[in-house]
Amino acid sequence: MQNGKDVAEPPGRRSGAPVRQRVRAQIVQQIAEGLLPAGAALPSVRELAEAAGVAPMTVTRVYAELKEAGLVEARAGSGTFVADSPLSRPGPRAAAAALRAEVDALVNRALSAGLRPEDVLALLTSRALERLSERKRPSIVMVGLFAAATESYAARVAAQVADAATVAPLVLGPDPVADAAMLGAADLVVTFPTIQTRVAALVPGARIVPIRFIPAESTRMALAVIDPLARVAVVSRFADFLPVLELGVRRFAPHVSGVTAMDMEAPGLAHAVREADVVVLSTGAEAAGDLARPGAARIEYRHIPDPGDIERLVLPWLRGEAEAEERRKEAS
Protein backbone atom coordinates (compact mmCIF):
# COMPACT_ATOMS: atom_id res chain seq x y z
CA MET A 1 0.00 0.00 0.00
CA GLN A 2 2.93 2.32 0.62
CA ASN A 3 3.35 2.99 -3.09
CA GLY A 4 -0.34 2.84 -3.96
CA LYS A 5 -0.11 -0.36 -6.01
CA ASP A 6 -2.63 -2.18 -3.85
CA VAL A 7 -5.42 0.19 -4.89
CA ALA A 8 -4.50 0.25 -8.56
CA GLU A 9 -7.02 -2.51 -9.19
CA PRO A 10 -9.55 -2.32 -6.36
CA PRO A 11 -12.09 -5.10 -5.77
CA GLY A 12 -15.09 -5.02 -8.07
CA ARG A 13 -13.24 -3.28 -10.89
CA ARG A 14 -15.71 -4.72 -13.39
CA SER A 15 -18.71 -4.19 -11.14
CA GLY A 16 -19.67 -0.86 -12.65
CA ALA A 17 -19.32 0.90 -9.29
CA PRO A 18 -17.86 4.42 -9.43
CA VAL A 19 -14.08 4.33 -9.26
CA ARG A 20 -14.08 6.61 -6.21
CA GLN A 21 -16.16 4.08 -4.29
CA ARG A 22 -13.89 1.23 -5.38
CA VAL A 23 -10.72 3.02 -4.26
CA ARG A 24 -12.34 3.92 -0.97
CA ALA A 25 -13.60 0.35 -0.45
CA GLN A 26 -10.09 -1.02 -0.97
CA ILE A 27 -8.62 1.29 1.66
CA VAL A 28 -11.40 0.52 4.15
CA GLN A 29 -10.93 -3.22 3.55
CA GLN A 30 -7.19 -3.00 4.19
CA ILE A 31 -7.79 -1.07 7.42
CA ALA A 32 -10.30 -3.69 8.57
CA GLU A 33 -7.87 -6.52 7.77
CA GLY A 34 -4.95 -4.87 9.54
CA LEU A 35 -2.93 -4.42 6.36
CA LEU A 36 -3.14 -0.70 7.11
CA PRO A 37 -2.88 -0.40 10.92
CA ALA A 38 -3.39 2.79 12.88
CA GLY A 39 -0.52 5.18 12.16
CA ALA A 40 0.29 3.71 8.74
CA ALA A 41 1.06 6.29 6.06
CA LEU A 42 -1.12 6.40 2.97
CA PRO A 43 0.33 7.30 -0.44
CA SER A 44 0.27 10.94 -1.46
CA VAL A 45 -2.64 12.06 -3.62
CA ARG A 46 -0.39 12.13 -6.70
CA GLU A 47 1.12 8.68 -6.04
CA LEU A 48 -2.22 6.99 -5.47
CA ALA A 49 -3.82 8.73 -8.46
CA GLU A 50 -1.02 7.54 -10.77
CA ALA A 51 -1.06 3.99 -9.40
CA ALA A 52 -4.84 3.63 -9.60
CA GLY A 53 -5.14 5.44 -12.92
CA VAL A 54 -7.59 8.03 -11.60
CA ALA A 55 -7.69 11.81 -11.39
CA PRO A 56 -6.01 13.42 -8.37
CA MET A 57 -9.34 15.05 -7.48
CA THR A 58 -10.85 11.56 -7.10
CA VAL A 59 -8.20 10.59 -4.55
CA THR A 60 -8.60 13.94 -2.79
CA ARG A 61 -12.32 13.24 -2.36
CA VAL A 62 -11.65 9.70 -1.13
CA TYR A 63 -9.22 10.96 1.51
CA ALA A 64 -11.64 13.72 2.54
CA GLU A 65 -14.48 11.22 2.97
CA LEU A 66 -12.29 8.83 4.96
CA LYS A 67 -11.12 11.70 7.14
CA GLU A 68 -14.68 12.85 7.81
CA ALA A 69 -15.58 9.24 8.69
CA GLY A 70 -12.76 9.18 11.25
CA LEU A 71 -10.75 6.49 9.45
CA VAL A 72 -7.74 8.60 8.43
CA GLU A 73 -6.13 11.81 9.64
CA ALA A 74 -4.04 14.47 7.95
CA ARG A 75 -0.81 15.63 9.60
CA ALA A 76 0.47 18.99 8.50
CA GLY A 77 3.65 18.61 6.47
CA SER A 78 3.66 14.81 6.82
CA GLY A 79 0.74 13.43 4.81
CA THR A 80 -2.29 11.26 5.47
CA PHE A 81 -2.27 8.42 8.01
CA VAL A 82 -4.64 5.72 9.23
CA ALA A 83 -6.44 6.98 12.35
CA ASP A 84 -7.05 5.06 15.56
CA SER A 85 -10.68 4.04 15.04
CA PRO A 86 -12.86 1.06 15.98
CA LEU A 87 -12.20 -0.40 12.53
CA SER A 88 -8.41 -0.27 12.95
CA ARG A 89 -8.29 -1.85 16.40
CA PRO A 90 -7.20 -5.49 16.88
CA GLY A 91 -10.58 -6.91 17.89
CA PRO A 92 -12.58 -5.81 14.81
CA ARG A 93 -9.58 -6.48 12.55
CA ALA A 94 -9.22 -10.06 13.79
CA ALA A 95 -12.95 -10.65 13.46
CA ALA A 96 -13.00 -9.30 9.90
CA ALA A 97 -10.00 -11.41 8.87
CA ALA A 98 -11.50 -14.56 10.40
CA LEU A 99 -14.86 -13.97 8.72
CA ARG A 100 -13.25 -13.39 5.34
CA ALA A 101 -11.29 -16.63 5.67
CA GLU A 102 -14.50 -18.51 6.49
CA VAL A 103 -16.33 -16.99 3.53
CA ASP A 104 -13.42 -17.81 1.21
CA ALA A 105 -13.43 -21.42 2.39
CA LEU A 106 -17.19 -21.66 1.89
CA VAL A 107 -16.97 -20.25 -1.64
CA ASN A 108 -14.16 -22.67 -2.50
CA ARG A 109 -16.20 -25.64 -1.26
CA ALA A 110 -19.23 -24.52 -3.26
CA LEU A 111 -17.19 -24.15 -6.44
CA SER A 112 -15.56 -27.55 -5.88
CA ALA A 113 -19.04 -29.07 -5.56
CA GLY A 114 -19.83 -27.84 -9.06
CA LEU A 115 -21.90 -24.75 -8.32
CA ARG A 116 -21.57 -21.91 -10.78
CA PRO A 117 -20.24 -18.56 -9.47
CA GLU A 118 -23.64 -16.94 -9.95
CA ASP A 119 -25.27 -19.77 -7.97
CA VAL A 120 -22.81 -19.26 -5.12
CA LEU A 121 -23.55 -15.54 -5.07
CA ALA A 122 -27.31 -16.15 -5.07
CA LEU A 123 -26.99 -18.67 -2.23
CA LEU A 124 -24.87 -16.40 -0.06
CA THR A 125 -27.14 -13.42 -0.72
CA SER A 126 -30.33 -15.29 0.11
CA ARG A 127 -28.90 -16.68 3.34
CA ALA A 128 -27.55 -13.29 4.38
CA LEU A 129 -30.89 -11.60 3.74
CA GLU A 130 -32.74 -14.28 5.71
CA ARG A 131 -30.40 -14.04 8.67
CA LEU A 132 -30.46 -10.25 8.70
CA SER A 133 -34.26 -10.22 8.59
CA GLU A 134 -34.25 -12.27 11.80
CA ARG A 135 -32.25 -9.54 13.50
CA LYS A 136 -33.87 -6.39 12.22
CA ARG A 137 -32.23 -3.27 13.52
CA PRO A 138 -33.91 0.12 13.61
CA SER A 139 -33.22 2.16 10.50
CA ILE A 140 -32.02 5.76 10.55
CA VAL A 141 -31.97 8.04 7.51
CA MET A 142 -29.58 10.98 7.56
CA VAL A 143 -31.00 13.75 5.35
CA GLY A 144 -28.87 16.45 3.75
CA LEU A 145 -28.51 18.54 0.62
CA PHE A 146 -25.16 17.44 -0.86
CA ALA A 147 -24.11 13.88 -1.65
CA ALA A 148 -20.54 13.66 -0.35
CA ALA A 149 -21.30 15.68 2.78
CA THR A 150 -24.44 13.69 3.59
CA GLU A 151 -22.56 10.41 3.14
CA SER A 152 -19.93 11.61 5.61
CA TYR A 153 -22.62 12.69 8.10
CA ALA A 154 -24.27 9.26 7.85
CA ALA A 155 -20.90 7.57 8.40
CA ARG A 156 -20.33 9.64 11.54
CA VAL A 157 -23.75 8.78 12.94
CA ALA A 158 -23.25 5.10 12.06
CA ALA A 159 -19.91 5.03 13.87
CA GLN A 160 -21.47 6.45 17.02
CA VAL A 161 -24.56 4.22 17.11
CA ALA A 162 -22.45 1.16 16.17
CA ASP A 163 -24.60 -1.91 15.51
CA ALA A 164 -27.67 -0.52 17.31
CA ALA A 165 -29.12 0.71 13.99
CA THR A 166 -28.53 0.97 10.29
CA VAL A 167 -27.82 4.44 8.93
CA ALA A 168 -28.39 5.48 5.32
CA PRO A 169 -27.82 8.87 3.66
CA LEU A 170 -30.54 10.65 1.68
CA VAL A 171 -29.96 13.76 -0.41
CA LEU A 172 -33.18 15.65 -1.04
CA GLY A 173 -33.63 15.72 -4.80
CA PRO A 174 -36.07 16.54 -7.58
CA ASP A 175 -38.21 13.44 -6.97
CA PRO A 176 -40.22 14.02 -3.77
CA VAL A 177 -42.07 10.71 -4.21
CA ALA A 178 -38.83 8.73 -4.07
CA ASP A 179 -37.60 10.80 -1.13
CA ALA A 180 -40.86 10.28 0.73
CA ALA A 181 -40.71 6.53 0.14
CA MET A 182 -37.25 6.23 1.70
CA LEU A 183 -38.17 8.54 4.58
CA GLY A 184 -41.41 6.69 5.23
CA ALA A 185 -39.57 3.37 5.55
CA ALA A 186 -37.19 4.76 8.18
CA ASP A 187 -37.71 4.36 11.91
CA LEU A 188 -35.94 7.65 12.62
CA VAL A 189 -34.99 10.63 10.44
CA VAL A 190 -32.03 12.83 11.40
CA THR A 191 -31.46 16.15 9.70
CA PHE A 192 -30.53 19.84 9.96
CA PRO A 193 -32.90 22.15 11.86
CA THR A 194 -32.92 24.42 8.79
CA ILE A 195 -34.56 21.76 6.58
CA GLN A 196 -36.67 19.99 9.21
CA THR A 197 -39.89 21.62 7.96
CA ARG A 198 -39.14 20.56 4.38
CA VAL A 199 -38.51 16.99 5.46
CA ALA A 200 -41.63 16.91 7.62
CA ALA A 201 -43.75 18.03 4.67
CA LEU A 202 -42.66 14.94 2.74
CA VAL A 203 -43.61 12.47 5.49
CA PRO A 204 -46.18 13.93 7.91
CA GLY A 205 -46.05 12.11 11.21
CA ALA A 206 -42.53 10.75 10.76
CA ARG A 207 -40.20 10.74 13.75
CA ILE A 208 -37.71 13.50 12.89
CA VAL A 209 -34.80 14.53 15.09
CA PRO A 210 -33.01 17.78 14.18
CA ILE A 211 -29.42 17.85 15.42
CA ARG A 212 -26.69 20.45 15.50
CA PHE A 213 -23.58 20.28 13.35
CA ILE A 214 -20.17 21.51 14.40
CA PRO A 215 -17.11 22.33 12.28
CA ALA A 216 -14.92 19.35 11.50
CA GLU A 217 -11.53 19.23 13.20
CA SER A 218 -9.72 20.13 9.98
CA THR A 219 -11.92 23.22 9.60
CA ARG A 220 -11.37 24.30 13.20
CA MET A 221 -7.61 23.94 12.82
CA ALA A 222 -7.56 25.93 9.57
CA LEU A 223 -9.60 28.76 11.08
CA ALA A 224 -7.41 28.91 14.18
CA VAL A 225 -4.25 29.74 12.22
CA ILE A 226 -5.61 32.53 10.00
CA ASP A 227 -3.44 35.65 10.14
CA PRO A 228 -5.12 38.16 12.47
CA LEU A 229 -4.72 40.90 9.83
CA ALA A 230 -6.15 38.82 6.98
CA ARG A 231 -9.24 39.90 5.10
CA VAL A 232 -11.63 36.93 5.18
CA ALA A 233 -14.58 36.31 2.84
CA VAL A 234 -17.10 33.75 4.11
CA VAL A 235 -19.37 32.36 1.39
CA SER A 236 -22.47 30.20 1.95
CA ARG A 237 -24.39 28.32 -0.72
CA PHE A 238 -27.69 29.15 0.98
CA ALA A 239 -28.71 32.40 2.66
CA ASP A 240 -30.43 30.69 5.59
CA PHE A 241 -27.22 28.86 6.48
CA LEU A 242 -25.09 32.03 6.41
CA PRO A 243 -25.64 33.03 10.09
CA VAL A 244 -24.55 29.57 11.25
CA LEU A 245 -21.49 29.67 8.99
CA GLU A 246 -20.46 33.16 10.08
CA LEU A 247 -20.94 32.30 13.75
CA GLY A 248 -18.69 29.26 13.37
CA VAL A 249 -15.95 31.28 11.68
CA ARG A 250 -16.04 33.98 14.35
CA ARG A 251 -16.06 31.38 17.10
CA PHE A 252 -13.00 29.50 15.89
CA ALA A 253 -11.16 32.55 14.49
CA PRO A 254 -11.96 35.15 17.17
CA HIS A 255 -8.62 36.84 16.57
CA VAL A 256 -9.67 37.92 13.05
CA SER A 257 -11.75 41.09 12.72
CA GLY A 258 -11.86 41.56 8.95
CA VAL A 259 -14.65 39.07 8.17
CA THR A 260 -17.22 39.59 5.39
CA ALA A 261 -20.00 37.02 5.08
CA MET A 262 -22.40 36.57 2.16
CA ASP A 263 -24.30 33.95 0.20
CA MET A 264 -23.75 32.99 -3.43
CA GLU A 265 -26.49 35.35 -4.67
CA ALA A 266 -25.30 38.43 -2.77
CA PRO A 267 -24.39 41.52 -4.82
CA GLY A 268 -20.72 42.36 -4.58
CA LEU A 269 -19.71 38.71 -4.08
CA ALA A 270 -17.06 38.75 -6.81
CA HIS A 271 -15.43 41.93 -5.49
CA ALA A 272 -15.39 40.71 -1.88
CA VAL A 273 -13.82 37.38 -2.82
CA ARG A 274 -11.19 39.01 -5.07
CA GLU A 275 -10.17 41.34 -2.24
CA ALA A 276 -9.92 38.58 0.37
CA ASP A 277 -6.71 37.02 1.64
CA VAL A 278 -8.67 33.97 2.85
CA VAL A 279 -11.89 32.56 1.37
CA VAL A 280 -14.01 30.26 3.56
CA LEU A 281 -16.44 28.18 1.47
CA SER A 282 -19.41 26.13 2.62
CA THR A 283 -20.39 22.91 0.87
CA GLY A 284 -21.93 23.87 -2.46
CA ALA A 285 -20.17 27.24 -2.64
CA GLU A 286 -16.92 25.93 -4.12
CA ALA A 287 -17.46 27.86 -7.37
CA ALA A 288 -16.95 31.12 -5.49
CA GLY A 289 -13.37 30.05 -4.85
CA ASP A 290 -12.66 30.45 -8.55
CA LEU A 291 -13.14 34.20 -8.10
CA ALA A 292 -10.30 34.45 -5.59
CA ARG A 293 -7.08 36.12 -6.58
CA PRO A 294 -3.92 34.00 -7.03
CA GLY A 295 -2.28 33.29 -3.71
CA ALA A 296 -5.44 33.61 -1.63
CA ALA A 297 -5.98 30.77 0.83
CA ARG A 298 -9.13 28.66 0.60
CA ILE A 299 -10.75 26.88 3.52
CA GLU A 300 -13.50 24.34 2.95
CA TYR A 301 -15.91 24.71 5.85
CA ARG A 302 -16.93 21.15 6.65
CA HIS A 303 -19.37 20.04 9.34
CA ILE A 304 -19.83 16.89 11.36
CA PRO A 305 -22.90 15.88 13.38
CA ASP A 306 -22.55 17.05 16.97
CA PRO A 307 -21.62 13.90 18.95
CA GLY A 308 -23.33 15.43 21.98
CA ASP A 309 -26.65 15.60 20.15
CA ILE A 310 -26.31 12.00 18.96
CA GLU A 311 -25.65 10.96 22.55
CA ARG A 312 -28.49 13.08 23.92
CA LEU A 313 -31.19 12.64 21.25
CA VAL A 314 -30.52 9.54 19.13
CA LEU A 315 -28.99 6.95 21.46
CA PRO A 316 -31.74 7.19 24.12
CA TRP A 317 -34.33 6.55 21.41
CA LEU A 318 -32.38 3.50 20.21
CA ARG A 319 -32.16 2.15 23.75
CA GLY A 320 -35.91 2.56 24.08
CA GLU A 321 -36.46 0.70 20.80
CA ALA A 322 -34.23 -2.17 21.96
CA GLU A 323 -36.13 -2.46 25.25
CA ALA A 324 -39.47 -2.41 23.41
CA GLU A 325 -38.26 -5.20 21.09
CA GLU A 326 -37.27 -7.33 24.08
CA ARG A 327 -40.71 -6.84 25.62
CA ARG A 328 -42.36 -7.85 22.33
CA LYS A 329 -40.27 -11.03 22.20
CA GLU A 330 -41.12 -11.92 25.78
CA ALA A 331 -44.84 -11.42 25.10
CA SER A 332 -44.85 -13.56 21.92
From TrEMBL:
SMART domains tied to this protein: HTH_GNTR (SM00345)
Chain residue ranges for the region called Disordered: 1-20
Top-level taxon in the UniProt lineage: Bacteria
Keywords attached to this entry: DNA-binding, Transcription, Transcription regulation
UniProt cross-references to PROSITE patterns, sorted A to Z: HTH_GNTR
Molecular function terms from GO: DNA binding; DNA-binding transcription factor activity
Domain HTH gntR-type stretches: 17-85
Biased composition regions of type Basic and acidic residues, renumbered to the chain: 1-12
CDD domains cross-referenced by the UniProt entry: WHTH_GntR
Pfam families: GntR (PF00392)
Identification of the protein by name: GntR family transcriptional regulator
